[in-house]
User: Fold this.
Amino acid sequence: MQQLLAIAQKKERHIIGLMSGTSVDGLDIAYCSISGEGHSTVITLTAFETIAYNPDFKAEIKSVFSKKEVDLEKLCLLNPWIAQQQAAMINLFLQKHGIKKEDVDLIASHGQTIYHAPKALHAREKFSNATLQIGDGDHLAAETGIITISDFRQKHIAAGGEGAPLAVYGDYFIFSKKGEDRIMLNMGGIANFTFLPGSMDANKIFSTDTGAGNTLMDALMQQEFPGNYFDKDAVVAKQGTVNEALLLALKDNSFFQQSFPKTTGPELFNLQYLQTAKEKSGTTEMNVYDTMATLNAFSAQTIAEAIQKTMPGNNSFHLYASGGGMHNPLLMDQIKQLLPGVPIHLTSELGINPDAKEAVLFAILANECIAGGNVQFSKELKGIPSVTMGKISFPW
Assistant:
């Protein structure tokens, strides 16, 4: 505890933020220097790298990922195994970038999401919201020799949230700008955004998932083009034509009628969801190119429609994009067309590499856990409880 107190009292803390998303493509490692807390947070991204997962790692995760029925022994074994694999990646990262372990104060680990079950999705009356991330923090701490903060989402749920999106906290602290309304759009497997009011009023912040980001497109690519994990440069989608019947069927789900804010995951938006929509629309024989073009339009439209529904009459905001979807030129072009007049940027214009943004945000959550926790959000803000998050693991 004395060590934690010493870290909290430092003028500048050096924190490694980790992110492994639902796309299961690799581990984002962001080495950050952070001073202050809350709105006084100042962050510098000193080193960043995404270390790709090998096929064996991906196969092991996918054997339990987003499935209602799994091998419980395998799930138990994967919890420490993932942490051990990620610890080896961190050690390699430190060596490659010439960073000494004693110069790292904390590791902030998101873990690997295995299942996300908000009550709106599982609909079991006696159970509340739930989510599960594996990749044990104790094993990370033991294998790296660095204090690790992990399992952030559980406190969010315990305090009344759905465990997502968590980006709102870091977004508010480092991206808010007085006098400019901003939307921070992250397009990972699932797309989400945070609205940051130019008034800097914490009670007017808004954050929600919008639906599928890349998850359906990635899953289709992996099924139809083995060895390809995503539609690079939208090459496949650009060869197809959007099918309106399939598009309408994809959008015909109760999730899109639920009030905001809300969360979701690949537990809903998966290949079975696509198959059901194809059967409903009579498009089961559609070729992969038209299907991919339609999925691309589905993501773009549901993102834009969520923004328009939650920002009625306000078209004066600036949008800053991050996440894998920003590399999809067709997806970005469609969003620009659907939000005419809205200036669209990347978070790199705000000093944060958009590929590193989520890992950076978990470093900020770890900083708040140790040295912050003073910013209070209104109790009326659904999905944004005023809590610090994370469980602390010490190396032996």
